[in-house]
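Figure 3 (text version): structure tokens given as input.
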């Protein structure tokens, strides 16, 4: 669940990106940055540390994203980091992705898989989840080795657990 402050930031960022005609691009780039922040402890602590001057934190953002992300994305991330909201970056990015999907009359599915999915697998998964939920679905894949195999998909409040880990747990319980 997204906190009220993160939701307010996400709404503002989505509106700015929409006004610039880059909502989908910004949402995707924010997601990629958020994934990097989640997996890199040094990056996460640097962006979250309020004792580090904002100019240094935004310098890290510029070094990391400059030339790789749209100027709109870079400016929005700098706004988050300079506003001492680095700790909420992942939450804000997630909310922006949901807003971008909603703007296209779609919903987000967060899928955990032991391995990265190729474009064909993602498309088939989007179709299957769409049929199961009656919604048009965008898939966000998170590589999670604890899944072992298969996938765990969450669409809104629905969870579809087709993971090997879940099947093994059911087998253990049955024995």
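Below: residues designed for each position.
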């Amino acid at each position: 669940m997204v906190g009220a402050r993160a939701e307010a930031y996400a709404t503002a960022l989505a509106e700015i990106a929409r006004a610039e005609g880059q909502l989908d691009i910004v949402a995707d780039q924010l997601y990629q940055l958020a994934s990097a922040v989640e997996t890199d402890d040094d990056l996460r602590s640097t962006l979250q540390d309020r004792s580090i001057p904002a100019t240094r934190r935004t310098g890290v953002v510029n070094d990391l994203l400059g030339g790789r992300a749209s100027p709109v994305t870079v400016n929005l991330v700098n706004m988050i980091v300079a506003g001492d909201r680095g700790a909420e970056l992942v939450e804000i990015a997630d909310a922006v992705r949901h807003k971008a999907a909603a703007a296209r009359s779609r919903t987000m599915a967060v899928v955990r898989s032991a391995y990265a999915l190729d474009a064909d697998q993602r498309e088939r998964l989007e179709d299957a989840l769409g049929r199961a939920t009656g919604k048009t679905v965008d898939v966000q894949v998170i590589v999670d080795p604890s899944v072992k195999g298969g996938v765990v998909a969450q669409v809104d409040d629905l969870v579809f657990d087709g993971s090997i880990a879940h099947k093994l747990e059911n087998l253990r319980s049955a024995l």
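The mean pLDDT is 88.
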